[in-house]
Amino acid sequence: MRPLTDEETKAMFEKMSKYIGENLKLLVDRPDGIYCFRLHQDRVYYMSEKILKLATNFSRDKLISVGTCFGKFTKTNKFRLHITALEFLAPYAKFKVWVKPGAEQSFLYGNHVLKSGLGRITENTMQYQGVVVYSMADVPLGFGVAAKSTQECRRADPMSIVVFHQADVGEFIRNEDSLT
C-alpha cells in the first residue's frame, strides 16, 4: 500500500470532481479526523490515518483491502469509480437525478435512464456532467453521466436516454466475485 503519485491523484480527483465538484476537499479535511487515499493492487482506498497506521502492521502480500475502495486504475491508467464510493459521494453531489419507481429496477439492472423514467433533475445540469442517481425516496442508487442537459431533457422524446449508466448498487449482486 502506497500513497498515490501526482498523476494518479490528478486522474482520480478529476474523475471525482465530475460528481462532487469543489466539495472534494470535504472528503479529505473532515471534522472527525484526517482521511487519505492509498493505492493497493491498482485499487484506491479511502481511510482514516488511524486505520492507515494499523494497516502498516501487515505485509503487502497478506493485505487484501483496507478502508473503502473508491475505484481502480485500468491498465491504461484511467480511473474508474466503484459503487462502493457512492455513500461518500452522494452527500456532496452537485448534480442529482431522481428516477421514478418503475425505472429504478431497470437502472439497478445496469440500463441507462430514459426520459420516461426521469422523476426530477437538478437545474443547470450540463450535458456529460457526472450525476448521482436517486430513487424518489432520496435513496442513492448509483451514478452516471447526463446524456442531455436539463433544458434538452424537457423537450426530449420519452424513449431517449437522459443518463448514461456508470455504476449502481445492483453491482454488489451482479459482480460480487470481482468487487474484492
Overall body shape: elongated
User: Using DSSP, what is the number of strands?
Assistant: 12
Helix count?
7
Structural class: alpha+beta
Unreliable runs: none
Helix content: 25-40%
Whole-Å distance between the termini?
Answer: 15 Å
Sheet-strand content, in percent, reads 25-35%
Rg calc: 17 Å
Question: What is the typical, i.e. mean, pLDDT?
Answer: 90
**Series of secondary-structure elements, N-terminal to C-terminal:** EHHEEEHEEHEHEEEEHEH
Biggest sheet record: 6 strands, antiparallel
Please supply descriptive tags for the structure shown above.
180 residues, elongated, 26% helix, 6-stranded antiparallel β-sheet, alpha+beta, 6-stranded mixed β-sheet
